[in-house]
User: What shape does this take?
Amino acid sequence: MSDNRGMSIWVTILGGAAGLAIGGPIGGLIGALAGHAIDHYRDGQDEHLRQNVAFSVALVALSAKMAKSDGKVTLDEVLAFREKVDIADQDITHVGHLWDLARQTPAGYEGYARQLRQLFGPKAVVFDHLMALLFHIANADGQITDKEQEYLYHVAMELGYDEKAFRRFEMLYQHDSDNPYHILNISPDADETMIRQAWLKLVRQHHPDQLQAAGLPKEFIRSATEKVATINAAYERIKSMREE
Assistant: This one.
């Protein structure tokens, strides 16, 4: 197994993703970027690295195609991506090239979303962070258009979410709900035990270490840190409200 721990995920992708057998539209985009197709396994292949690469490439592709979904790509949308993703100065050009390729490729967004679902399973916790980023990009110019809304909905469905889950995404990421019960996804009628259990479950699910183990690249961990802070703040607010 080759050691890629010292490399950024962007350098790994640029190098052809170390020959990882990803295939599908994700592998096709990697091949287009690296100048060759990714069509074989190497001995000792790192499955965790494979997930990291697939998630990163698919997220860039889905972000680029989402930014283009209303017929135009604004600088605000491109900058919004970098606000949430760690990209070293020396990697900006590589990520920009990947973004441009994704916008131009004929593969639709559905293929990228379906392939992620196959790799991670439906409604994987890492997908919450993917959807949050897509909403952030869509809202970068101050509003989410009807076409962007439709795009977000269909991506969520391809990732295994249902209508109820998507409406919660809208509430949290489009309307910026700061209702602590919405954040913890629990009823205001819940008792203290239920609230504490909901809080602990979400903290465990979104803890940076847990997410990295589940395949979220370190370049995207900032969103996990922010998510845990939001969850903890919501729990503290509920406790304070009930003490009044």
User: Anything to note?
Assistant: Residues 178-244 form a domain with the Helix Hairpins fold (CATH 1.10.287.110). The first helix runs from residue 9 to 14. Confidence is low (pLDDT under 50) at residues 36-45.
